[in-house]
Amino acid sequence: MAEINPPAWMQAGSYPARTDRLVLSSLLGYPGFLVDESTPMRIRQGIKPSYQNQQFKARAAPTPNMTVIVSAGFCFIDNHDAGGTGTYVCVNDADKTLTVQPAGGAGQYRKDCVVASVYDAETAGSVSEWRLEIIQGTYAALAGAATRPSLPPNCSLIADLTIGPSQTSVATGQIFDARNFAVAAGGILPVASTISPSRPHPGQVLYQTNLDKFVYGRLDGTTADMVPKATSWTAITFSGAWTNYTGGVSEAPAMARITGDGRLELSGYVTGVAVAAGATATIGTVPAALWPAYWSRCVIGNSLASGYGTVRVDPSNGAITVINGDIAASNTVRWQLDGFSARAV
């Protein structure tokens, strides 16, 4: 429904706080979680990204004790008490120290959660404020059985804390980052792959910080890898007596590249020592920048002996090896690499 004249709140006078919250919602990203899909006016809530994502980061005290420190930053939290209520901006302008409740006795383990929470009496309860707080978990008999407690409906999870029997301090090893990062519509979202939104909006680009990798959101709510740009052909480094074969007419030298759809390609004609049937020989290596993420292999031809073999590239060191697969071949000294094309990334 279109407005012909500017609404009153753009000019002067008083208006509901929800109006401002909806304006903020319009500037932020599409809902990132399945629970929000039925309410498209919600946003992808979470922490504002920053250099190395230091905003609202939970850390141990310099001398560990039963506290955690949450750094300064901005957090966007949607109202889940009622759909379409709008977004709150929560600002922490300095380190905030939070007290962890004492640990239980023998055989008592729990998982606590550090959260940024909004309480709004307009939609639920009688309190109107936002808090940085620790929600205490229930006790379990085993460490692996401890689960997250029920969290406030309007909150952004910051960290999980593991609390063991008679524990007297919370060290770095007991603090597990669980932040989600909010982003303006259309921006790239930096987030660990372990806590990525379950349903990024179509075309949304995510930079997975722990994998140094880009993925994008698909129409069905899943993600797919960004297609890498093809690299330039680069010469391989030969091993031992192996070298480029130059006995023919304009034979191409041995080269390697990554294609635009993420395949490792080899090209060229190489010669070297005889490889006995069933034996393996190392031809050389591809440049470190082209080392594949997986073992890559392909059947190739040997024109001199009319035989065939398998060429492989090792993901751990980029080594190119050839296995003579033709039992009848004995003088296999020329291999054509042009048939090699295998998944690399």
Can you put this structure into words, describing what you see?
The chain has 345 residues and is mainly beta. It has 2 domains: 14-185, no CATH class; 234-343, Immunoglobulin-like (Sandwich), CATH 2.60.40.2460. Helix content is 3%, strand content 34%. The protein contains 1 helix and 26 strands. It has a 5-stranded antiparallel sheet, with no helix packed on it. Strands 8-7-9-10 form a 4-stranded antiparallel sheet, with no helix packed on it. A hairpin with a 4-residue loop joins β18 (255-258) and β19 (263-267). It is elongated, with a radius of gyration of 29 Å. The two termini are 47 Å apart. Mean pLDDT is 84; it is low at 1-6.
Q: What's the SSE blueprint?
A:
Blueprint: H1 17-27, E1 46-47, E2 58-60, E3 67-70, E4 73-78, E5 87-92, E6 96-99, E7 110-119, E8 129-135, E9 155-163, E10 175-177, E11 189-191, E12 205-208, E13 213-217, E14 223-225, E15 234-235, E16 237-238, E17 243-244, E18 255-258, E19 263-267, E20 269-271, E21 280-285, E22 296-302, E23 307-313, E24 319-324, E25 334-336, E26 341-343
Parallel strand pairs: 11-12
Antiparallel strand pairs: 1-4, 2-3, 3-6, 4-5, 7-8, 7-9, 9-10, 12-13, 13-14, 15-18, 16-21, 17-20, 18-19, 19-26, 20-25, 21-24, 22-23, 23-24
